[in-house]
């Protein structure tokens, strides 16, 4: 049936600030859904409290409400605006829970709002563990033996009846929060108490634990005619027992028999039909007994999930976009296939490549955390890689992770301690994949590894093949490696860095030149969703080593934007927001905009956001060959955080133009010695400092500048490795640890201004004029990382003199650094004197916040300035903020209850929210003022 014309306006509920378990994959889905509805002439309103995402930008929604995600906020929107329908399936668990609460309070009925994309009854059936279990029994779908418990006594009785090992699953929680395995009776009481407390309804499911079984997911779409298609099958590399968000996943499923797959399909369709009569998307998780192919259902989510974003990028099938159109009445056969443009959306994608997703963790930010993986998700982001084979894709994924690895091993970072390796295989953590390879390299039998890890033998055999290839390569020197063998290595995902390491005494560039001379070059294949059965129209590519190159460069003026890689603490969604605006600005000004990124959760990797998308690691070898193919006028590194900035030196060395601020000027800002010399020349105050290369030098410097001192490495983001110390003994420990974690780095030692206020400025410079984007005042004092501080815009208690000094210093530094584009400066203020702490000539965490607060597209303006097509005088900038805007950091400490929540110079927040305050009499604001006074008097 065609579109429901009675739906003229839709409210989309977002997911709020980024937390562990609910990241920017929901902002991607929400953004895609909003654009899809706008295509149909529907007015789109969005409620979301996250300022860092493109979803809360006016390029996405007609009306954006940066309000707290509460039922009261929703009711206020409904009073203000005529809303016909609400779409709650794009905002994760937060949106679904809010939808249920609003329904229970009668809000939807009161204002005549329809819930589309799902029905409330379906949410209830899937989120209530007992209701879900009973429904599965009724429709003949297998489930693990389980019992519901609403009290301690009921839980104990259930455990006695089912037997150990058990799993406890709280109802209505996200990311496995509050859940866990219980292997023996002595552990049960504590686990049950935790689960009951975690559930908002004080309800848990006590369930048989199917540890070691294989885990699979299917992504489904259904229309109002009850047509159902399976978009993607996803297999977990890790067996049951590790949260799917913390598992390496592979698409399509690699080790699933056809009979088992068909059975799983039928069960998934039956499950989706049983939970309610709605049109939209659904994610179903199954477990399969590896001994007999017995299938049991784990859960069903009647919404887009983390895996939906992955499946969309994996197949090229825009799940959220199509789901939004199904929600307003269209059927699948009435919609166009977004890839081929000639067939309908009523088809199931076919892949002739392999997708691998590898999670990214930040345990280094949570000292003392339990790093063992289990039912509770702990990863902060993920990367996706595309290859012709599983092993090529997993090597590319390892190169994408931003943990200093050149692939899966063969880079000098192996572990040789057998005891540590075997313990790591048994107790999975962030490095288990690398430990598997290390164990094989040391001769541990494959079957022994399988027994300990319970990972399918097929995956282990693939990794073992890498070990064999490495052994064979060591027989050669660079000049006598056979061409066919070198080609095989590249097809198996080996980077030039890995090959140079294995050959010894050979550089990456020499390997690159050798294979180029042999004609071994990277080619690019199109992601077409139909294994080339139909011609694809979408410029969405991945690399491999074959004959035919499907990415044909145009003769247009091109700009490449380097993305920020996986989300992590210190580098999150705000940089993707910046990259998207960079792409839009380039397109608006007549350039062909090319995106390079490997994060499946983000809008920048949506295939219709750039003119051309390369879903590739932001890793030098890959970036280099894309540049050689496309021959752009330059590369934008200023918008992709530290990931992109780290490329600047290589680009500069190779004579590739960096658009915006030059490499040398960026390096002056990064190099504390050179930067302090510049400040001295400009007569701008800064804390006394020194640079050391070892602990002995550090102690000399610290005694010269005076304790307390701030110790930190050069060239890092998010305060990595920073600490404040007060004596020689603590300093020595800090320096030794820092150099151990970041070998080859230099240590910066600054006199720490105790009890100083911290402030920030963001500005744009076009080489002549400087526009101050915003001045912010922090609530927390200097010494707390700016990303973990509440920041108020504009300042509320700084004197006129202090603000004038901040503006004057910002303009002086911008011009002295020859900034073209963005500049963020952090200050410490003590006794009315303003000191410069650091300057970052790039997109910062705070610019999206300021842009949303003032309602000014600052990144778009900065990008056009960087591209040289506009000067600041070309723009009329009108700020619309009444009162104050507050950036509130959000933490995920609940995932690590054993970790201290104390904040310091190293950033720990996972996201942020925005709050608007009309005046200083607001109770919340008055509390902030009181907090600030308390902090500074400590």
UniProtKB/TrEMBL annotation:
Against Gene3D superfamilies, the record matches this protein to: 3.40.50.20, ATP-grasp fold, A domain (3.30.1490.20), ATP-grasp fold, B domain (3.30.470.20), Carbamoyl-phosphate synthetase, large subunit oligomerisation domain (1.10.1030.10)
InterPro entries, sorted: ATP-grasp (IPR011761), ATP_grasp_subdomain_1 (IPR013815), CarbamoylP_synth_lsu_oligo_sf (IPR036897), CPAse_ATP-bd (IPR005479), CPSase_dom (IPR005483), CPSase_lsu (IPR006275), CPSase_lsu_oligo (IPR005480), CPSase_preATP-grasp (IPR058047)
Q: Which reaction does it catalyse?
A: hydrogencarbonate + NH4(+) + 2 ATP = carbamoyl phosphate + 2 ADP + phosphate + 2 H(+); hydrogencarbonate + L-glutamine + 2 ATP + H2O = carbamoyl phosphate + L-glutamate + 2 ADP + phosphate + 2 H(+)
Q: Which SUPFAM superfamilies match?
A: Carbamoyl phosphate synthetase, large subunit connection domain, Glutathione synthetase ATP-binding domain-like, PreATP-grasp domain
One annotated GO molecular function is: carbamoyl-phosphate synthase (ammonia) activity
Instruction: Give a Gene Ontology cellular component term annotated to this protein.
Output: cytoplasm
Q: Where is the ATP-grasp domain?
A: 133-328, 676-867
Q: SMART domains, per this entry?
A: CPSase_L_D3
Pfam families attached to this UniProt entry: CPSase_L_D1, CPSase_L_D2, CPSase_L_D3
What cofactor does its activity depend on? Mn(2+)
Please cite one Gene Ontology biological process associated with this protein: L-arginine biosynthetic process
Please provide the record's keywords in A-Z order: Amino-acid biosynthesis, Arginine biosynthesis, ATP-binding, Ligase, Magnesium, Manganese, Metal-binding, Nucleotide-binding, Pyrimidine biosynthesis, Repeat
Q: In which pathway does it act?
A: Pyrimidine metabolism; UMP biosynthesis via de novo pathway; (S)-dihydroorotate from bicarbonate: step 1/3; Amino-acid biosynthesis; L-arginine biosynthesis; carbamoyl phosphate from bicarbonate: step 1/1
Q: Does the keyword Metal-binding apply?
A: yes
Q: How does it assemble?
A: Composed of two chains; the small (or glutamine) chain promotes the hydrolysis of glutamine to ammonia, which is used by the large (or ammonia) chain to synthesize carbamoyl phosphate. Tetramer of heterodimers (alpha,beta)4.
What this protein is reported to do is described as: Large subunit of the glutamine-dependent carbamoyl phosphate synthetase (CPSase). CPSase catalyzes the formation of carbamoyl phosphate from the ammonia moiety of glutamine, carbonate, and phosphate donated by ATP, constituting the first step of 2 biosynthetic pathways, one leading to arginine and/or urea and the other to pyrimidine nucleotides.
Q: Which family does it belong to?
A: Belongs to the CarB family.
| UniProt xrefs under PANTHER family | CARBAMOYL-PHOSPHATE SYNTHASE [AMMONIA], MITOCHONDRIAL, CARBAMOYLTRANSFERASE FAMILY MEMBER
Protein name listed in UniProt? Carbamoyl phosphate synthase large subunit
**Species annotation:** Pedobacter ginsengisoli
Q: What is the lineage of its organism?
A: Bacteria, Pseudomonadati, Bacteroidota, Sphingobacteriia, Sphingobacteriales
């Amino acid at each position: 049936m065609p579109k429901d014309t009675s739906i003229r306006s839709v409210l989309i509920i977002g997911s709020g600030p980024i937390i562990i378990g609910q990241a920017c994959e929901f902002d991607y889905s929400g953004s895609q859904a909003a654009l899809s509805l706008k295509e149909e002439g529907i007015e789109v309103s969005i409620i979301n409290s996250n300022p860092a995402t493109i979803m809360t930008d006016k390029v996405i929604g007609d009306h954006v409400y940066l309000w707290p995600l509460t039922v009261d906020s929703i009711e206020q929107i409904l009073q203000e605006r005529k809303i016909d329908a609400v779409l709650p399936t794009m905002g994760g668990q937060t949106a679904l829970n809010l939808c249920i609460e609003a329904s229970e309070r009668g809000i939807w009925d009161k204002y005549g709002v329809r819930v589309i994309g799902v029905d409330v009854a379906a949410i209830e059936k899937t989120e209530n563990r007992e209701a879900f279990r009973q429904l599965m029994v009724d429709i003949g779908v297998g489930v693990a033996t389980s019992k519901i418990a609403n009290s301690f006594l009921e839980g104990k009785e259930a455990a006695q009846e089912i037997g150990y090992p058990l799993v406890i699953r709280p109802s209505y929680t996200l990311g496995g929060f509050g859940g866990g395995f219980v292997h023996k009776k002595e552990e049960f009481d504590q686990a049950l108490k935790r689960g009951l407390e975690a559930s908002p309804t004080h309800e848990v499911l006590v369930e048989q634990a199917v540890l070691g079984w294989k885990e699979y997911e299917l992504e489904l779409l259904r229309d109002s005619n009850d047509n159902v298609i399976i978009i993607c099958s996803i297999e977990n590399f890790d067996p049951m027992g590790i949260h799917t968000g913390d598992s390496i996943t592979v698409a399509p499923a690699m080790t699933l028999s056809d009979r088992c797959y068909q059975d799983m399909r039928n069960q998934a369709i039956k499950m989706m039909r049983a939970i309610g009569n709605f049109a939209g998307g659904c994610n179903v998780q199954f477990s399969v007994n590896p001994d007999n192919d017995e299938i049991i259902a784990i859960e069903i989510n009647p919404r887009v999930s983390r895996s939906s974003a992955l499946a969309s990028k994996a197949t090229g099938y825009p799940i959220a976009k199509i789901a939004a159109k199904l929600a307003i009445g269209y059927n699948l056969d009435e919609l166009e296939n977004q890839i081929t443009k000639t067939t309908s959306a009523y088809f199931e994608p076919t892949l002739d490549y392999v997708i691998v997703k590898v999670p990214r963790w930040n345990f280094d930010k949570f000292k003392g955390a339990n790093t063992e993986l289990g039912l509770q998700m702990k990863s902060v982001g993920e990367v996706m890689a595309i290859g012709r084979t599983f092993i090529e894709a997993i090597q590319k994924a390892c190169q994408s992770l931003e943990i200093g690895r050149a692939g899966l091993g063969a880079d000098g970072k192996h572990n040789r301690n057998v005891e540590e390796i075997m313990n790591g295989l048994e107790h999975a953590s962030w490095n288990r994949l690398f430990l598997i390879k290390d164990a094989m390299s040391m001769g541990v039998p494959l079957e022994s590894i399988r027994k300990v890890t319970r990972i399918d033998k097929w995956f282990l055999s693939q990794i073992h093949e890498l070990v064999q290839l490495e052994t064979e390569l060591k027989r050669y020197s660079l000049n006598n490696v056979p061409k066919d063998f070198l080609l095989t290595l590249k097809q198996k995902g080996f980077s030039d860095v890995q090959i140079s390491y294995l050959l010894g005494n050979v550089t990456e560039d020499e390997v690159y030149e050798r294979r180029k001379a042999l004609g071994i070059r990277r080619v690019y294949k199109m992601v077409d969703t139909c294994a080339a059965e139909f011609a694809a129209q979408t410029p969405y590519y991945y690399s491999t080593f074959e004959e035919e190159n499907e990415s044909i460069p145009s003769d247009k003026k091109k700009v490449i934007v380097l993305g920020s890689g996986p989300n992590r603490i210190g580098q999150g969604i705000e940089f993707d927001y910046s990259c998207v605006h960079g792409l839009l600005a380039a397109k608006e000004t007549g350039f062909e905009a090319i995106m390079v990124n490997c994060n499946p959760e983000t809008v920048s990797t949506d295939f219709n956001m750039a003119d051309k998308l390369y879903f590739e690691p932001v890793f030098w070898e890959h970036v280099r060959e894309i540049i050689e193919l496309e021959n752009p006028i330059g590369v934008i590194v200023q918008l992709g955080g530290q990931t992109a900035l780290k490329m600047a030196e290589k680009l500069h060395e190779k004579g590739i133009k960096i658009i915006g601020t030059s490499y040398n000027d960026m390096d002056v800002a990064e190099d504390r010695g050179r930067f302090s010399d510049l400040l001295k020349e400009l007569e701008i105050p800064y804390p006394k400092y020194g640079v050391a290369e070892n602990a002995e030098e550090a102690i000399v410097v610290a005694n010269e500048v005076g304790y307390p001192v701030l110790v930190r490495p050069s060239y890092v983001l998010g305060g990595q490795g920073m600490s404040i110390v007060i004596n020689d003994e603590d300093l020595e420990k800090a320096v030794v640890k820092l150099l151990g974690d970041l070998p080859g780095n230099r240590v910066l030692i600054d006199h720490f201004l105790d009890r100083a206020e911290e402030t920030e400025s963001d500005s744009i410079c076009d080489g002549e004029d400087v526009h101050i984007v915003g001045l912010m005042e922090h609530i927390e004092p200097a010494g707390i990382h700016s990303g973990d501080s509440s920041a108020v815009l504009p300042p509320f208690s700084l004197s006129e003199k202090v603000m004038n000094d901040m503006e004057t210093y910002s303009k002086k530094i911008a011009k002295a650094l020859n900034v073209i584009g963005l500049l963020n400066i952090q200050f410490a203020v003590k006794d009315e004197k303003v000191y410069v702490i650091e300057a970052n000539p790039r997109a910062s965490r705070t610019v999206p916040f300021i842009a949303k607060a003032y309602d000014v597209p600052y990144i778009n303006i900065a990008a056009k300035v960087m591209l040289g097509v506009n000067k600041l005088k070309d723009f009329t900038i009108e700020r619309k903020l009444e009162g104050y805007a507050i950036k509130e950091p959000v933490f995920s400490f609940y995932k690590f209850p054993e970790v201290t929540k104390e904040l310091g110079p190293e950033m720990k927040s996972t996201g942020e929210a925005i709050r608007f305050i009309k005046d200083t009499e607001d109770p919340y604001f008055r509390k902030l003022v009181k907090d600030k006074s308390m902090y500074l008097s400590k």
